[in-house]
Design a protein that fits this description.
Layout: H1 39-56, H2 68-74, H3 82-93, H4 96-101, H5 103-113, E1 134-142, H6 150-158, E2 164-168, H7 172-182, E3 188-192, E4 195-199, E5 203-208, E6 225-232, E7 235-243, E8 248-250, E9 253-255, H8 257-272, E10 278-283, H9 294-300, E11 332-337, E12 340-346, E13 357-363
Parallel strand pairs: 1-2, 7-10
Antiparallel strand pairs: 1-13, 2-4, 3-4, 5-6, 6-7, 8-9, 10-11, 12-13
């Protein structure tokens, strides 16, 4: 039998080519590439996100125990200082992820406090231009019960020619000095305990307001609030002058229990106030963001539209009032119901540990 000649050997199978298997889905291209976050950048990025959350929603921090929420809200604007610190860290580590993440707290801070930065003032249009608003110029000041020169302080408060001057921590000697110094230009005044009001307009219906916390119920000398009706050219205005209890920062936390209790009592009084126009001047020992003052804000909102001096109303800077040597927070407040508070500013320092606070309040005459 003849054997067939052997042919060429079979070709080897083709080698596998690089790339995805034809039966597997192809990976989607990254449309918006994000820089990879290294381990060293993870912590700054996390801190940036946390900072943004605290600025946007400080209420996320609980208020018990120790009232950390109120403490945060008191110094909330100062959280913005963490942004340049984190930015410096990002530049040092050349972390693009951290730099981009810092846009979040920057935006949150600007939303909260951008209106306090210097900018061109825009006149606020009046809802009814045929009825020009009546303006009250007010000054609020805790003069300190250790003030050695109350007469000089009284002159300083009268310098911008306000129509209402509210004062806290009055002593008998200070009352005498203020009355003598301001008597010619402010013939109408009312005092109760350690608070007082001097006015260019007649004051009627003057009465004390009970905001005494239960822990001080037995103290007959603790009287820190009054109410009066000022007969302004635009109509009667209910004026409250108050001094809420002081705060204490210690091992147990932010001691605001007495302040918060007084705020609840004051809120009840304001909610029951029948007048449409109300002005509240005082040392509230808290900022506008402090949740402990929520009863007061709610009560002022019960009728009309409140515009607190501590809110986003036009202001010259942040107008921090305490401590006078290096102001960190605005704990002195000027609030209004059915009025617009504008032109918020601090006055030059006196002998007190607080700076005086001044503001203008516009009331539309259609409420007469």
């Amino acid at each position: 039998m003849t054997q067939a000649p052997a042919g060429p050997p079979p070709s080897p199978p083709p080698a596998p080519t690089a790339g995805p298997h034809p039966l597997l889905p192809r990976p989607r291209p990254r449309l918006l590439p994000w820089p990879a976050i290294s381990r060293t950048a993870a912590l700054p990025v996390l801190l940036s996100v946390l900072l943004a959350a605290l600025l946007a929603r400080p209420s996320l921090v609980p208020n018990t125990p120790g009232h950390p929420g109120s403490l945060l809200e008191t110094f909330l604007p100062w959280l913005g200082l963490a942004v340049p610190l984190l930015l410096a860290l990002a530049l040092r580590r050349r972390s693009a992820a951290t730099a981009l993440a810092l846009l979040l707290p920057t935006a949150a801070w600007l939303v909260q406090f951008g209106s306090f930065l210097p900018h061109a003032a825009t006149p606020t249009p009046t809802a009814h231009p045929t009825h020009p608003p009546h303006t009250l110029t007010t000054v609020q000041h805790n003069i300190s019960d250790e003030n050695q020169n109350p007469s000089h302080t009284a002159k300083a408060l009268a310098a911008p020619h306000p129509t209402l001057i509210a004062v806290e921590e009055l002593t008998p000697a200070a009352i005498t000095a203020f009355t003598a110094t301001l008597g010619a230009d402010y013939p109408h005044h009312a005092t109760h305990g350690t608070v007082g009001l001097w006015s260019t307009y007649p004051l009627t219906d003057v009465r004390p307001v009970d905001i005494k916390p239960s822990a001080l119920a037995a103290d007959p000398h603790w009287n820190r609030a009054l109410r009066a009706t000022a007969a302004t050219p635009g109509g009667p205005v209910a004026v409250y002058v108050v001094h809420l209890p002081s705060l204490r920062l210690g091992a147990s936390g932010f001691g605001s229990a007495r302040r918060d209790e007084s705020a609840v009592l004051l809120g009840s009084v304001l909610a029951a106030e029948p007048a449409d126009r109300v002005v509240l001047l005082g040392d509230l020992n808290g900022t506008a963001d402090d949740r402990g003052l929520a009863p007061i804000r709610t009560a002022l909102a019960a009728k009309g539209t409140p515009t607190p001096a501590t809110a986003k109303a036009p202001a010259t800077g942040f107008a921090f009032t305490w401590p006078a040597a290096f102001p960190l927070a605005r704990i002195d407040q000027i609030l209004a119901r059915s009025g617009t508070v504008t032109g918020v500013r601090t006055l030059p320092a006196t002998s007190s540990d607080h700076l005086p606070l001044a503001a203008d309040i516009q009331f539309d005459q259609r409420f007469d």
